[in-house]
Task: inverse folding
C-alpha cells in the first residue's frame, strides 16, 4: 500500500515568492538608502574618537535640560491632544459615513503641512501683529502680552497640538466606530449617568488605543524640530534644538550632534515601544 506525504503547511510557489519579492524590493531599497545608510553614517560619526562624543554629551548640563524639556513637552502636549482628539473622534463616530469622510478630510489637512508652515501660520494668526492679536487689542488687550503667548513654551505646546490632534483622531476613530454602543445603553438603563457610563464602560475598553495614541504623539512631539525652531528658537531647551545648536553657525561639534541624534532616536523608539506593550494581542 502506497503512502503519500501530504504537505503539512501551505507552501508558496516559487513564482509567487518572486512576485512578493518584486513588491517588497523597492521598499527595501528605499529603507536602505534613506534610513540604514544614514544611520550607519551617523553612528560612525558618533563613534569617532572612541565614542568620546557620548561622554561630552552626557556630561553637558544643557543636554539634560533638553531631555527634561523634551519629556515635559512630550507629555503635556500629547496628553492635551489625546483628550481633545478622543472627544472629536467620539463625536465623529456617531456621524454618517459621508459627513465623517468630509470631516476626516478637513481634520487631516494639518498633517500635510511642514512644521515651519504651521509655525508661521500661528505667527500670522497669534503673533504680535497677528489677526487674533489685533482683534483682541481693539477690545483692550495688550498686544505685547497676547502676541507673546505663541512664542512661549505653552504656545509651542498649543502649536504642537495642532498636528497631534489629527493623529489621535485617526487612531481612535476606527476603535470608537466599532464599539458596541448597546453597552452604554445598558449602563444608562441601570441608572448610570452619561459621563459615568462612558468613563466606566467605554474608556477602559479603548484604553490600549488611547495609550497607543499618546505614545505616538509623544514620539512626534519629542522629535519635532521645525515648529519649535521657528516659534521659540533656542529659548526653550529641547533635544532637537540642542542638536541644532551643535551644528548651527554657533557650533560645529558634529560627533556630539551625531551622538545626540542617536540618543534622541532611541528615546523616541522607547516611547513607541511602550505602546507595543499595551497593544492587544490577537488570540489565534
Result:
Amino acid at each position: 500500500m502506497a503512502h503519500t506525504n501530504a504537505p503539512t503547511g501551505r507552501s508558496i510557489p516559487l513564482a509567487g515568492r518572486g512576485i512578493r519579492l518584486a513588491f517588497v524590493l523597492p521598499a527595501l531599497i528605499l529603507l536602505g538608502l534613506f534610513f540604514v545608510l544614514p544611520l550607519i553614517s551617523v553612528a560612525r560619526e558618533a563613534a569617532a574618537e572612541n565614542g568620546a562624543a557620548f561622554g561630552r554629551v552626557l556630561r553637558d548640563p544643557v543636554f539634560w535640560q533638553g531631555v527634561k524639556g523634551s519629556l515635559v513637552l512630550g507629555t503635556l502636549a500629547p496628553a492635551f491632544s489625546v483628550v481633545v482628539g478622543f472627544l472629536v473622534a467620539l463625536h465623529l463616530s456617531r456621524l454618517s459615513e459621508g459627513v465623517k469622510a468630509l470631516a476626516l478630510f478637513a481634520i487631516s489637512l494639518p498633517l500635510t503641512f511642514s512644521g515651519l508652515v504651521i509655525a508661521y501660520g500661528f505667527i500670522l494668526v497669534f503673533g504680535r501683529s497677528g489677526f487674533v492679536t489685533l482683534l483682541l487689542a481693539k477690545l483692550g488687550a495688550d498686544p505685547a502680552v497676547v502676541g507673546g503667548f505663541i512664542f512661549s513654551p505653552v504656545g509651542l505646546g498649543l502649536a504642537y497640538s495642532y498636528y497631534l490632534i489629527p493623529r489621535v483622531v485617526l487612531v481612535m476613530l476606527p476603535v470608537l466606530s466599532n464599539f458596541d454602543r448597546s453597552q452604554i445603553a445598558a449602563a444608562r438603563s441601570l441608572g448610570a449617568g452619561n459621563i459615568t457610563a462612558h468613563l466606566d464602560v467605554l474608556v477602559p475598553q479603548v484604553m490600549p488605543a488611547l495609550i497607543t495614541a499618546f505614545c505616538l504623539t509623544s514620539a512626534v512631539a519629542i522629535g519635532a524640530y521645525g515648529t519649535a525652531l521657528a516659534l521659540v528658537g533656542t529659548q526653550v531647551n529641547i533635544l532637537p534644538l540642542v542638536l541644532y545648536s551643535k551644528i548651527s553657525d554657533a557650533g560645529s561639534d558634529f560627533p556630539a550632534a551625531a551622538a545626540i541624534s542617536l540618543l534622541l532616536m532611541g528615546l523616541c523608539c522607547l516611547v513607541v515601544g511602550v505602546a507595543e506593550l499595551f497593544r492587544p494581542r490577537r488570540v489565534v
About this structure: The CA atoms of residues 125 and 131 lie 5 Å apart.
